[in-house]
Fold:
Amino acid sequence: MRRGLQLVVAFLAAATFLQAQDASKPAPSNVQGAAYPRINADQTVTFRLRADNAQAVTVNLPDFGTVTLAKGDGGFWLGTTSKPVPPGFYYYTVNVDGFTANDLGSQTYYGYNRYGSALEVPGPDSALWAPRDVPHGAVREQYYFSKSRSEWRRIRVYTPPDYDTNARARYPVLYLQHGAGENETSWTNQGDEAYLLDNLLADKRIRPMIVVNENGVVPAAVATPATVAPAPAGPPPPATPARGAGGGGMAGNTFAEFDAIVSKDLVPFIDANFRTVANRSSRAIAGLSMGGAQAMRLGLNHLDLFSYIGLFSPAVGNLDPSTAYDGRLKDAAAINKQLKLLWIGIGTEDRLYGGVKTTHENLAKAGITHVWHEAPGAHVWQVWRKFLTEFAPLLFRS
Amino acid sequence: MRRGLQLVVAFLAAATFLQAQDASKPAPSNVQGAAYPRINADQTVTFRLRADNAQAVTVNLPDFGTVTLAKGDGGFWLGTTSKPVPPGFYYYTVNVDGFTANDLGSQTYYGYNRYGSALEVPGPDSALWAPRDVPHGAVREQYYFSKSRSEWRRIRVYTPPDYDTNARARYPVLYLQHGAGENETSWTNQGDEAYLLDNLLADKRIRPMIVVNENGVVPAAVATPATVAPAPAGPPPPATPARGAGGGGMAGNTFAEFDAIVSKDLVPFIDANFRTVANRSSRAIAGLSMGGAQAMRLGLNHLDLFSYIGLFSPAVGNLDPSTAYDGRLKDAAAINKQLKLLWIGIGTEDRLYGGVKTTHENLAKAGITHVWHEAPGAHVWQVWRKFLTEFAPLLFRS
Structure:
């Protein structure tokens, strides 16, 4: 290309860029320096990818829809959502000629059993979890040994801003779990847990607390060494597992393993290694979706450990309190006395809404005290972030 | 497909899988449950991806080579490296019809200015950074406010296993930097920094220390608000930036910014918020590649802050001690007195080897005391992990 033409092209590109400047900006979920995806002034979102020889390129946001990209110049494909994208966090994949992958312009978030792309569209609620000029806590990535699994396990632990300087203070602990296909990084990465808690604390809406995130997706069994017996026969798993596939966190067997991990290994480790208040009045367990089902079972199985239970859009539908959880809910008066809080929240557009509402109604009929919280929204992180801002202020008040 | 045929196919798949069982295993860098990439018994590596309608699929490992995949059944593409892959950590991308992306079977690591895939091939040296049944430190992800940038910045801080329980102890600090296109997560994620230090400490080879990782890729300037003046005109950056592109960490101007971040903001923050020994005898600065160049400049600019300097495969070639760094190396006797250690390591197959060796020779000629460490290997993480196991034991001995 000749120099003159280069200048013209540079000028046109600059003009386009300046025009675009006012109208659009990179998504905050992009990696440093990535210009796309871009959020436009009307809150539609534009994706741009390079795929020189592709025949078809789509971007797929399970909680929003599919965007078909069109081939432009220089091997780049471009496409904009047909309608504004409501504020929130959206997992997405790119599909190029049948290949499902990340957009390398995005940061990665563990969901659907993989580190994938996501789009964050800010909105009025984002102020709740936006980084503000307030004291910040720390998130520790830490390993501990689980005797029940015979393995080192990775957890994340949020400690409040004054944890290191206020060396004699002891803190209550919230055990907070993710959903199927996610892991111990999800509450801090896609849930903005740390910023959100920093803000609630700065606004004096919560008591300072430690928050612990484990990985609730426990493989069905510890792998048997190949020299002893072969693994169960079967074809290799698909390269792109579906959400929840392979997790099995809902099955009875693996639930029992997670119960043992938390109650026998994790809670004692946290109490031995952090300055906690080590009693049931200062322990809460909560989770979203699959993690909500786990929180309910763990909380009821271990009323000696926990006195607060939080269920965010939980996979706990059509509950019958007279038979569920080995009859642990049968005696309403006893449960009401033991639990300081049973909190259930669900989005009105959530696919689990009907079943969870029936659970709420059945609990109410059985006389089991609980907080019922309906809010707009589907089965998405935007709802769970807001639930945490509603739930955390109710904890550790007595 | 008829049921009978399904059974035959399932049987053949199972037989193939059982046969493969003894011969191959998923790479340790895969996400939980992902069967591919697989490391075979002969240390070749097999990749497998689904791309139903693709015309060409390759896997590209910049530090090894390209693997061309062949289309098999069910939309899957399969390919094996033509030779064994030496032990180490390999960034890789997948290219499908001109589209560059991740392999969703891999965990993601920040390098080349994006969160991309990588392949870990274990070998004898892996014992140095393998998780062992020893006390483990924690890695904190933490934010601090940088006055010189007017922004909250994210760092990682490794604290040794006894940091929380030994509440009166104070610790020396190593500031340890990544290379171009990487960030503050790279030393813990691809460098296995925490496990490696845990092991060295368990073997009594190092003194307990705090290790701090910052993001040395500083954009050229804080963005000016659009209402005041438009951002510099130019076309949007490419969707897939090249390694080091956009970083600019080597340019004089942005180096000055990183110098201010570390010396004015980071060191005071660490000393105020961690139990450090806050003097130059207990502070080291080291880095790899671009980070090595930054460590050398920062260390020499701030001899009041640092007394140990470590350069791992540094971008410091053909150094002339009589003129470099504003003459700070001119007086060999003075520098030798002030620096407790100047350590320079390089792989003999590194593309920077010649220039760095000349730097070493010029320093020797000028009478500047330093440790020169040559080892087999290229410009790769496997070498830098080993350099850390050589360098850390020499720190904080007097």
In short: The mean pLDDT of chain B is 88. The first helix of chain B runs from residue 3 to 23.
